[in-house]
Amino acid sequence: MKSSGKNAFKSIKPAWLLAGLALLAAAWFAWAGVQELAFARLQSQVDATRISAGAEAVSRVQKAISELEGRRSRVALATALQREDQASADDVIKGAWAAVEAVEWHDPGLDEPYADPKAFGYGKLGVLELALQDNTTRAAIVKDAGAPRLALAAPVLADGRVLSVVYVRLPLETVTAPLASAELSDQSYLALRQGRHSVFERGDTALANSAEYGAVPLAGTRLRVVAAAPAGSGGMLTHFLLAALSLLVAAGLLLQPHLKLRRKADGDEAPGDTADAGPTLAELQASGRIKPPEPEPEADGMQKPPMPPAAAASRTVLDRSIFRAYDIRGVVGKTLDEETARLIGQAIGSVMQAQGAKAIVVGRDGRLSSPRMAAALIDGLRRAGREVFDIGEAPTPVTYFAAYQLRAGSCVSVTGSHNPPDYNGFKIVIEGETLAGDAIGNLYERIVENDLYLADEPGLASKREITEDYVNRIAGDIQIERKIKVVVDCGSGIAGAIAPQLLEAIGADVEPLFCEVDGNFPHHHPDPSDPANLRDLVNVVQRVDADLGLAFDGDGDRLGVVTKSGEMIYPDRLLMLFAADVLERNPGACIIYDVKCTGHLAMHILRHGGSPLMWKTGHSLIKAKMRETEAELAGEMSGHFFFRERWYGFDDGLYAAARLLEILSSRAETPQEIFDTLPKGVSTPELKIEVEEGRQYTFIEDFLAKAKFEGARLATIDGLRADWPDGWGLVRASNTTPVLVLRFDAKDEAALTRIKEAFREQLLATDSSLKLPF
């Protein structure tokens, strides 16, 4: 009997065990449901806090803006400024406004801020520019006096003329106080953001990345209030239903013993081991990261020339004029020859030696002189003990790419860019930095002072093929969504060796035009910034019924675009399209443009949530500014585009073309219809006045000293740009050829004519011998 009772107990044990598990499951599901209910309540509280704190912050900022609006309109302020009575002007702004920490006055040209924008503060400069764009009071958070502050800026007008721009600094608490005092759980997050940066934040910062949904913007600024709460699974009802179901299962299992029959024979009992059955989880195998292959230490075709004689560098007389603002460029046979190229190579190698850089990539364009210029340059680099990867003929952007792909970090592109066939030169990057200004001059000084490093053994040289990697890298990231037919005009430049292949790889239907590489440039000059060089492209686009025409310069780092109607889409308008696309993924990003770009561009960038910054013309200068400001995108009126978002930050006309087709293919409208939506005024292309070598620089010095433009805001960061409310004009010295570069832009033909006449008068007053192209 005892044995029989014992067996009966064993027979019901699994049921009790399963019932206990079901009860535990019911308890867990019930607890999870309660947690989801708590998450929902917390989310509701956070939403309410975001709305209320945002509304109060908006009210405070608008109150400050309205206060300054009222004060800047007072007659007493204009009178004080006209009398140059700054103390009285300060009183008008600060009087009975206790929150004001500081007041500054700046001339409409912002000459002082632009003299050293880094020291002045890019944020302060930006809010001043915003105010001048539309002659209104603007607000932003800037770093001032060593900490974030609320900054206000507004132009002071008299008879439609800007007398001065006032800058008012207020405590950050002016706008952050509502957020600081709001009721907030430690489990949630609340922040004030400007662009991508959190100016003020509270709570659990781990939630920061999920806080943008439902953001409350502060009108008239780039500020917004964001908030987040921990995310539940959203299955509150499901959890409660599963808890009820688990209770039913437990009840059924507990009733199971009453249905069991006792076995009479001890030998008939079966082992009670079924309770151990159950599913198992397979272990996940963690895969290791695949490391890219290291560059081979040797390669087929490696050369080891005889050691150079241990003698001083050649005493070749150098023409200082070829060492320009952002590259080296001269006329082959006159100011540039093979011995000069060899010395330049050794000078570059000497700088690399001083910086500890060992390897360098050399590519060359399709000019007739490029093979021998590249060979001499490589010889000089090897004399300095550098290891050289020779990639042969390649567009300049491909050479830049090779420096990353081969992990060299340094490169030289042997190219004359868009200049005539008898020109050639060198674009130089050392350890990721494009040489410009004093760094270019330093190479000249090294050569003339014979400060050249001579290695005990020459560096190794090997040939590498990089084109396929370049095409695959871009095509692996960009595939257009619908077929676009494009005509590609490379003007017989080196871009013709790769542009059709690249654009076909991303899905375009390509019609090549002048894509055979010929250093004589027999069809037209490879300069897409000149409308005359685009006539053939327009004719072929219309003849083959293509959607678009793309043109590249001599080394492929610049892009030009024409539509089926024959319209030339200026690069500053292309930059509007690129900026809007980049800012969708990078709100608040800095976008840089050069002084030749339209005045519509800054406002377009601002409307799309970006931070515009105007800077000097020149690919090296733009890249340096991008590194300094961490800008995601930059562009020049010449057609240079620099993408840091999804790319490497160097100027690349080929990659820009791929990004353009990606954008156009993602929309249902035709390219012409898309371009028609962009802000457009009446403008000229780049106009050029030829002068004697070096005269362009002395002319600009004279022009800055003598020129007067009534009612205009002057910018002198690169030449002279005069901005009126209805348009602007520019004259600057080219750093690549002996010319003066001009451009004009206005809201209508009447304004354009007036601005051109104002510049005509001042140009001829400075030098009556100039032959003006307008």
From TrEMBL:
Q: What are its E.C. numbers? A: 5.4.2.8
Going by the UniProt record, its keywords in alphabetical order are: Isomerase, Magnesium, Membrane, Metal-binding, Phosphoprotein, Transmembrane, Transmembrane helix
Top class in the EC scheme: isomerase
- Reaction catalysis annotation: alpha-D-mannose 1-phosphate = D-mannose 6-phosphate
Which pathway is this protein assigned to?
Answer: Nucleotide-sugar biosynthesis; GDP-alpha-D-mannose biosynthesis; alpha-D-mannose 1-phosphate from D-fructose 6-phosphate: step 2/2
Q: Pinpoint the Alpha-D-phosphohexomutase alpha/beta/alpha domain residues.
A: 321-450, 469-566, 571-678
Task: Return one Gene Ontology term, BP aspect.
Answer: carbohydrate metabolic process
Q: Which residues cross the membrane?
A: 236-255
Origin: domain of life? Bacteria
Q: Name a Pfam family for this protein.
A: PGM_PMM_II
Domain Alpha-D-phosphohexomutase C-terminal, residue spans: 686-761
| MF term (GO), any | metal ion binding
Q: Does the keyword Metal-binding apply?
A: yes
InterPro entries linked to this entry: A-D-PHexomutase_a/b/a-I (IPR005844), A-D-PHexomutase_a/b/a-I/II/III (IPR016055), A-D-PHexomutase_a/b/a-II (IPR005845), A-D-PHexomutase_a/b/a-III (IPR005846), A-D-PHexomutase_C (IPR005843), A-D-PHexomutase_C_sf (IPR036900), Alpha-D-phosphohexomutase_SF (IPR005841)
Q: Where is this region: Disordered?
A: 265-313
Cofactor requirement: Mg(2+)
Q: Which Gene3D superfamilies match?
A: Alpha-D-Glucose-1,6-Bisphosphate, subunit A, domain 3, Alpha-D-phosphohexomutase, C-terminal domain
Family membership noted in the UniProt record: Belongs to the phosphohexose mutase family.
What this protein is called in its record is phosphomannomutase
Species? Arenimonas donghaensis DSM 18148 = HO3-R19
